[in-house]
């Protein structure tokens, strides 16, 4: 665990203020849910809550199926990072932060096609110098709960320069996103 040099006291209601520097670094916004754990050593651990994280095993199986059927790279993202990858090396993408394009889709809640060769369409932080992280075409479909809250994305990507994502890929990604949303709400 990393020491911050910041000490906070618990108030009479049992509350602790998380310092602004830590909230900014961890991208924790007001009203955002946190999970609270206690480890074997008695340390209290706060972790950003991800509803998709609860379904990570299921999301991985769904991504595996999509990748197998389509021969595309299939990913599931939560609000902050890639949580499931299939059709590509997991270590290249798993837990990588969202790209600007992915964050924009999360904000707008609209399915988007990016037909831009060499684009880093859904995540940042992978080896940008290699071709492993560059795609010629990508579909990003928001996972939207019934209350309208976007909690993640389903992504289909291709490295084949002759592939252009179209209506079929949009329908596949939207179906996967809708299915995952329903699983989270049940």
Automatic annotation (TrEMBL):
GO terms for molecular function: DNA binding; identical protein binding. GO terms for biological process: sporulation resulting in formation of a cellular spore. The keyword Lipoprotein does not apply. Pfam families: MazE_antitoxin, SpoVT_C. It comes from the Bacteria. Residues 5-51 form the SpoVT-AbrB domain. The keyword Ribosomal protein does not apply. Keywords: Activator, DNA-binding, Repressor, Sporulation, Transcription, Transcription regulation. PANTHER family: PTHR36432, STAGE V SPORULATION PROTEIN T (PTHR36432:SF1). This is Stage V sporulation protein T. It comes from Anoxybacter fermentans. The lineage of its organism: Bacteria, Bacillati, Bacillota, Clostridia, Halanaerobiales.
